[in-house]
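Following up on my earlier thread - several people asked me to post the actual chain instead of describing it. Fair enough. Here it is, all 174 residues.
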Amino acid sequence: ADEAWPLRVEFQQPSGGARASLSADLGDRFAARLERDGGKDAAWHGGVGILQPARGADSGVMVSAAFDRLDLDAWRRALALYDGEAEQAAPSSGPPPALRLSGVAMQAAQVRAFGQTLKQVSLSAQSDEGGWKARLASDIVLGEFDWRHAGDGTLNARFRHLTLGGDEQETPAA
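Reply from S.P.:
Thanks for posting it. Predicted structure:
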């Protein structure tokens, strides 16, 4: 708690509609490198790194992250409030979002997701116009999946290894 984390932020907006850039660093814990071509509706592209260097993308934003422990179930509960608001929003005919996620590269010693605990997790995911394609490896799963978001959505998965079951929970003594 007594450790100082140096924060550095740099924004450059050249005149004449040239490429703008934004870089930010929080010690060795967070890094962002983003660029935007001229034009008010132009989207940012580049990378964000969490406990890893930022890796760039030519289109959209690539997120690279490394965690000791990540609880996706807790994040899903925390963000559930926003799901209803997003569903109620009317479709927009305006410009695309300024920050579009184009990919994720994540490693974690432990991930809690959908009631399962995965160890030694590696996830590599790329977005495309129709959804996401990803490779996932851990102690209980090894394979690929493809999410298409058209209609109600479709998930196709090909796993070489998949072990499902409830985590062993300690039961209180009676």
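Confidence is low (pLDDT under 50) at residues 85-90, 170-174. That should answer part of your original question.
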